[in-house]
Amino acid sequence: VRPVTSGHRITLTYTLHRDAAPDPNVDALLTRANTLYHSLSRALASPDFMPAGGHIGFECRHLYEESQLAQAESKLAAGGANAYASKLKLKNEDAVVAAVFAGAGLPVTCVRILSGEDLDYVLAKMPTKKDSAKFGSKEYIENSFRAMAVTPEEIDSYTEGQLSEVTGGDVEWIGSYKSAASKWAERYFGEYFGNEASHTEFYTKAAFMAEVPAFSSRRAPAGALTGVHIHSKAAPAVCHKQPKMTSFT
């Protein structure tokens, strides 16, 4: 590209505006949100769906730090406009599912999960990599070397307990995609660390859980989904072409 030194140069500048109600035909995520909302509304209206109450769980598809989860949890608890997907500082389907749960009038909590040895445990806070130094202790492994190890009792004291025990085991998990998990620690695991010590990787992940009341005390969700919007003060959707001419002499 050579510089223009004579004649005229015309530059077209586009100013794009998007209104506050995106077109569902081009917004796949909003379409999926509406589908989930209407399916959830129909389920809540049925006396056959969790008649005694329970929980609906969704494992997050993205990784989050404690500050992000705490902020989302606070806004979800506040409800209203605070629980809109755009306000939660979550990503994609995670934000949409949390907003749909809240939009259906269900109390929503964020669950911090530690996974290992085919068991899930609930954490009070999402730990950092540095926090893993407090997880377990150095033990003499297989009568030959010392390494970091953890016992079931130490896991119980580090966490709030197994997920199935904390939730009562009445969780209906939704979503078919694999959740996002981060490898947090590697430990030898067991009651003792003799000739067959088990080496285990522990992962952290997050999930959103909605509390479903018993059918006798449920309130019907609103007829339309709110909270999953792109908020903007822009004018109605329009594209302007603004020609700009520069003269060179």
Brief description of this entry?
Helix content is 22%, strand content 33%. It has helices spanning 28-44, 66-78, 92-103, 152-158, 163-167, and strands spanning 7-17, 54-59, 108-116, 119-123, 137-141, 145-150, 161-162, 171-173, 182-189, 198-212, 238-248.
How does this structure look, described?
The protein is α+β, with helices and mostly antiparallel strands. It is 22% helix and 33% strand. The protein has helices at 28-44, 66-78, 92-103, 152-158, 163-167, and strands spanning 7-17, 54-59, 108-116, 119-123, 137-141, 145-150, 161-162, 171-173, 182-189, 198-212, 238-248. Strands 2, 3, 4, 5, 6, 7, 8, 9 and 10 form a 9-stranded mixed sheet that branches. Strands 1-11 form a two-stranded antiparallel sheet. A hairpin with a 3-residue loop joins strand 5 and strand 6 (145-150). The protein is flat and about 85 Å long. Mean pLDDT is 78; it is low at 229-249.
Content of β-strand: 25-35%
Helix amount, in percent? 10-25%
Order of helices and strands: EHEHHEEEEHEHEEEE
Low-confidence stretches: 229-249
Radius of gyration, rounded?
25 Å
Structural class: alpha+beta
Count all strands and give the number: 11
Number of helices: 5
Largest sheet: 9 strands, mixed
- The shape is flat
Mean pLDDT across all residues, rounded? 78
Outline the fold blueprint.
Layout: E1 7-17, H1 28-44, E2 54-59, H2 66-78, H3 92-103, E3 108-116, E4 119-123, E5 137-141, E6 145-150, H4 152-158, E7 161-162, H5 163-167, E8 171-173, E9 182-189, E10 198-212, E11 238-248
Parallel strand pairs: 2-8, 6-9
Antiparallel strand pairs: 1-11, 2-10, 3-4, 3-10, 4-7, 5-6, 9-10
